[in-house]
Amino acid sequence: MARGDGRLTHDLLPGEKGPQDACGVFGVWAPGEDVAKLAYFGLYALQHRGQESAGIATGDGQKVLVYKDMGLVSQVFNESALQSMTGHVAIGHCRYSTTGGSTWENAQPTLGGTDTTTVALAHNGNLINSAELRELIAARHGELDRHPGEIGRGNTTDTALVTALLSDPDRSLEAVALDVLPRLRGAFCFVFMDEHTLYAARDPHGIRPLALGRLDRGWVVASETAALQTVGAAVIREIEPGELVVIDEDGLRSHHFATPEPKGCVFEYVYLARPDAVINQRVVHEARVAMGARLAAEHPVEADLVIGVPDSGVPAAVGYAQGSGIPFGQGFVKNAYVGRTFIQPSQTLRQLGIRLKLNPLAHTIKGKRLVVVDDSIVRGNTQRAQVRMLREAGAAEVHVRISSPPVHWPCFYGIDFATRAELIATGLGVEEIRASIGADSLGYISLEGMIEATEQSADRLCTACFTGSYPVALPEDGRIGKHLFEPLPIDLSHSARDVDPAPVLGLGTTPAEAASRRASGIRVDVEGVSYGVDGGAQNALLHP
C-alpha cells in the first residue's frame, strides 16, 4: 500500500515556505489502559504540529517496541499495529523536520539504550549546540558511522544525539538524564521512556509548551492541553521550565535541573497551537481574537466585510470585526480533506497553486471592500495569490491585515521559518510589501499589541523572529541549521563570510534574468528569489 511520503501538502506554490509547525509529543503511563491507542489519539490531536512522520513506542516492563513511518498519524497506524503494541507506558511523536531531513531514518521516537535498558525518545524543539554534542559523542565512542545507535544508522537529528547521550550502562536513566539535560542548549520538550518509566523534560526557557494531565489510572504529558483533553485526562499544570518529571509505579516525582528563565514562544499564540490550547493560563483562541481587535484599533479602514484566511487567521478576523464594527463573513472555502500525499502534482496543477487549498466565495465578496486577516507574511507568495484570487472573484478593494509583526529573523528553536534571505520583510518596508502582494493597504499589528493580547509579560516571551533578540545565544561559529549533519545539494566551497547577502525579493526580475540566475547555480524560485544557504540562516548569524 502506498503511503504518504511527507513531501507534499496542500501548499503547492513553488518554493513557498511558511512558518512550519513545530513537532508534537505525547507520553502516557497508565497500567491497565490501552496506552498505544491513547498515544494514537493524542497524536491525532497534535497532528497540526507535524505531518511528515509519526511514531509510537510502548513498554511493558520487559521490552520496548517502536512503530514509526512517514506520513500522517492515520496513514502510519492501523488497528492491528496498535493492538500489537501492549504495555503500561507509551510515548508518541508527530514530526515536522527542523533538524535533519524528512526521511524515515529521522522519524521518531528514536531508539537507544544498553544491554540492560532500552531508551525511546520523542522531541519537540531544536538544539543549537548539536555540533558540540556530536563531538562529545565522537570523543566517547569513536567514528560515528560505526555508532551502535541511531546515529550509526543514518539519523541526522539532534534527537538521536540526545538518545545516544542517555544510553549509559553504568547509571540509571534518571541519573543520566539529570546529567545530560543541563548540557543541552536551545529549545526542547522531551518525552522519553524505558521499559518501566515515563520521563518528561522541558528546557529552562520553556520555549515550547508541555503540559501534564491526570487519568483515572495514570498520567499523561503532551505538547498541548488539547491532546490531554482528547484522551480524557484532566489538565493538572504545565511542566515547568528546567523541570524533569519522572512517573513510575512509585508515583510522580520532579527534579529541577536548571534555574527557570521563561521565554515562551509568542508564535504559539499567533499560529502554531490549536485554538483550544491553553498556554500559561491563556486560551490561544482568546489571544488571537484580542490580536484582531488590536489590529482594528491600530489599522482601521473603511470596508464592507472582514474575512479570515483559514484556519489560523479566522479568530483574529473575528476580533477585527468586533473591534471595527465591520461585519464578519466567510470569504474563503478551505479543502478540509487535504493531507500529505504520494501523488505529485503536474506543472499545470502547480500553477493553480493555492486554489487546491482555498477557493474564494465569489457571491459573498463580489463588489465588496474586503479586510483580509492572516497570521503572518513570510515570503509573500501566499498573500499575493490570495489577493489575486479575491480580485478575480470581484472584490472591489482588498485590505490585508496581519496579526503578527513583520518577520525579520529565522527561528532556531523549533520552527522551520524561511531563511533570512527569503523573508520578505528583511529588505522591504510595509509599503513595498503592500505593492508586492497587490493589496490596497497593508497593516501589521505592533509588537506591543501582539504581546498585550497574549496577556504575558514581555520578558517571559521569545520574540526573536520579530526582533532578532535570541534568548539562547547562537553559536558564534555558525554551526547551526536544519541540515547541519547532512550533505547539501549546494556548493559550500566558499565561505558565507565572503559573500554578500542574497537578494530578498526579485522585484522586477524578468523570466530571462531568473533563468540566468538558475543557470549560474544560484538556487532561486519561480520569481527569481534566491534561497541559497549563503543568504539564509548563516547570514542571520554573520550579518545581524
Question: How would you sum up this structure in a few lines?
Answer:
This protein has 544 residues and is of the alpha+beta class.
Task: Please give the order of strands in the largest beta sheet.
Answer: 3-2-4-1-10-9-11
Please state the overall shape, judged from the principal axes of the Cα atoms. globular
Distance between the termini: 48 Å
CATH superfamily of the largest domain: Aminohydrolase, N-terminal nucleophile (Ntn) domain
The count of helical stretches stands at: 19
Helical percent range? 25-40%
Q: What is CATH's topology name of the largest domain?
A: Glutamine Phosphoribosylpyrophosphate, subunit 1, domain 1
What Rg is obtained from the alpha carbons, in whole angstroms?
23 Å
Structural class: alpha+beta
CATH architecture of the largest domain: 4-Layer Sandwich
Total beta-strand segments: 23
Q: How would you state the average pLDDT, rounded?
A: 83
- Model regions low in confidence, pLDDT < 50 over at least 5 residues: 4-19, 339-343, 488-515, 517-544
CATH class of the largest domain reads Alpha Beta
